[in-house]
Design a protein that fits this description.
alpha+beta, 72 residues, 3-stranded antiparallel β-sheet, 3 strands, 2 helices
């Protein structure tokens, strides 16, 4: 994500995460632009109460790519 589009997307995703109970302002719960080892960078990493990674969110344009192909 880059520039204004990235900021707009981040606002939308942050709202959705808050709606689901994630404390997006808590760096131990939600990390942004996190390095994911050899896989590159993840847009979001959701963590448990101990800061361990639970899920990765990779933001893409709607209908831009099949989610299964994004992992490749």
């Amino acid at each position: 994500m880059t520039g204004t589009k990235e900021a707009f997307s981040r606002v939308k995703i942050d709202i959705q995460l808050r709606d689901q109970g994630w404390a997006v302002e808590n760096r131990n719960a939600v990390r942004y632009e996190e390095t994911a080892g050899d896989a590159g960078r993840a847009d979001y990493v959701l963590c448990d109460r101990h800061g361990r990674s639970l899920a990765v969110i990779e933001a893409k344009k709607a209908a831009a790519i099949n989610p299964g192909e994004a992992a490749a």
